[in-house]
């Protein structure tokens, strides 16, 4: 079930009615959410539902042992719990990558080995729910969670269906704190959630899927296109990736609000970032904050005696993990490495922790506009590593961009209506960039006729461009 499918809407309406009308206390509400998560996950990966439930039970049992353990045995219980989660993640997502690379490495030294590649099916959302479990275990180990939730509450946290397949990656403490108490229906949260879902649907179905009609053929026929076409295409793909992923996040957050639960913000208008550090503070926030807490911060403390170079090493390791988290392919690793290396000038100039200056009004300053343009172009080129099939394709793609054909007229058709849709999304997000999402307060003080007229216009565009439910780019992770 995709969040943008009629099947999911039907499923959510039934669950919404049961949740608010029939579930009279927190336990029943949580039972409805768990049942919803089981049904939702079964619709995606029925063969892996048992694996998910067994892993939930195992990590919950270990967390109870962990919180009761003394300091000497605490680290062993935490390692066991993390190992339980990591083993399944390493097997399903990285086993073939390891086999292929060991085989290729041995061949370089003349060893003849058999490449035994397994037909492994990747469980949907495994990277997202695995990080939820590991984060929970680490928070218990670090005594940030002092009271273990019930098995029901923990199961709801891991299997919360709006965020299960593409995030955000919530932390246990704020999430469980909300579901311990009975949720009361709020018309304000309901309306706020609907507006955020509407904006997410517009970004996904209207903007991202429209751009996909251009970028999908471009990546298939890139060898026939000139440099200018590929450069424009890379910028379009960057916008598509943002609209697709943030559109899902908006819908996930919106559906959560309708259930009386606030989940973590995942995007903060990253298209307007002014440097690499600013970008990663605004892009996939739940992943970057998770890795900051559990990877970068411990490493930076470990390497603090090396000064700026220790900080650089910690950041590069952190971003290598970000790249590898996305997939078991070398182009993802290089994607992470390039992002890490982009921090080096900021660190050497002592500007890593400095916040960028942003204009309050409608018109950006010249410096802000310049920084936004440079950052946008830089990440448009970097995201090519995210989109290609392998490093060979990436090399050919970059080679064609940085050739004399870059100065030729683009040789691929570009629909004007797509440019209009992109402009509409970016313009509205620029105007509302100091809010949580574009429609949070937009037109709130205008007459109801104007406000609802705008909402109906978005609904009209959604139905106009909706053909069939298409998957999300990040669902593959």
TrEMBL record:
UniProt GO BP: alginic acid biosynthetic process
GO cellular component: plasma membrane
Membrane topology: Multi-pass membrane protein
One Pfam assignment: MBOAT
Alphabetical keyword list: Acyltransferase, Cell membrane, Membrane, Transferase, Transmembrane, Transmembrane helix
A GO term for molecular function: acyltransferase activity
Compartments (UniProt record): Cell membrane
Predominant subcellular localization, coarse grouping: membrane
Transmembrane regions listed in the UniProt entry: 6-22, 80-97, 117-138, 306-324, 330-348, 369-388, 414-432, 453-475
Name of protein: D-alanyl-lipoteichoic acid biosynthesis protein DltB
Organism: Kaistella antarctica
Gene: dltB
């Amino acid at each position: 079930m995709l969040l943008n499918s009629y099947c999911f809407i039907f499923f959510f309406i039934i669950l919404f009615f049961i949740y608010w009308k029939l579930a009279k206390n927190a336990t029943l509400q949580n039972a409805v959410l768990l049942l919803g998560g089981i049904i939702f996950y079964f619709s995606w990966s029925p063969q892996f539902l048992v694996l998910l439930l067994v892993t939930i039970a195992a990590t919950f049992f270990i967390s109870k042992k962990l919180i009761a353990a003394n300091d000497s045995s605490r680290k062993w219980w935490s390692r066991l719990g993390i190992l339980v989660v990591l083993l399944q993640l390493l097997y399903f997502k990285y086993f073939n990558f390891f086999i292929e690379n060991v085989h290729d490495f041995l061949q370089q030294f003349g060893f003849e080995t058999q490449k035994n590649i397994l037909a492994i099916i990747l469980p949907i959302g495994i990277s997202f729910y695995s990080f939820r479990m590991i984060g929970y275990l680490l928070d218990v180990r670090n005594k940030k969670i002092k009271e273990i939730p019930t098995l029901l509450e923990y199961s709801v946290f891991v299997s919360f269906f709006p965020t299960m397949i593409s995030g955000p990656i919530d932390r246990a403490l704020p999430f469980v704190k909300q579901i311990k108490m009975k949720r009361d229906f709020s018309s304000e949260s309901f309306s706020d959630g609907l507006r955020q879902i509407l904006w997410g649907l517009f970004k996904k179905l209207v903007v991202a899927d429209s751009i996909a009609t251009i970028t999908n053929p471009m990546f298939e026929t890139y060898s026939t296109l000139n440099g200018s076409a590929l450069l424009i295409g890379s910028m379009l793909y960057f916008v598509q990736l943002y609209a697709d992923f943030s559109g899902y996040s908006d819908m996930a957050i919106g559906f959560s609000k309708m259930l009386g639960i606030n989940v973590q913000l995942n995007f903060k208008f990253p298209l307007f970032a002014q440097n690499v550090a600013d970008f990663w503070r605004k892009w996939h926030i739940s992943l970057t904050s998770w890795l900051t807490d559990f990877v970068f911060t411990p490493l930076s403390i470990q390497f603090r005696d090396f000064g700026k170079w220790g900080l650089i090493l910690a950041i590069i390791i952190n971003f290598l993990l970000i790249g590898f988290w996305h997939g078991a392919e070398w182009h993802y690793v290089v994607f992470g490495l390039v992002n890490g290396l982009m921090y080096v000038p900021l660190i050497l100039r002592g500007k890593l922790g400095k916040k960028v200056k942003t204009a309050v009004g409608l018109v950006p300053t010249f410096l802000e506009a310049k920084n936004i343009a440079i950052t946008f172009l830089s990440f448009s080129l970097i995201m090519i590593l995210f989109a290609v099939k392998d490093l060979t394709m990436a090399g050919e793609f970059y080679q064609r961009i940085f050739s004399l054909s870059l100065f030729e007229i683009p040789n691929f058709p570009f629909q004007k209506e797509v440019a209009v849709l992109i402009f509409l999304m970016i313009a509205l997000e620029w105007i509302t960039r100091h809010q949580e999402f574009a429609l949070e307060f937009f037109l709130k003080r205008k007459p109801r006729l104007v406000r609802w007229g705008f909402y109906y216009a978005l609904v009209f565009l959604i139905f106009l461009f909706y053909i069939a439910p298409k998957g999300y780019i990040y669902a593959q992770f």
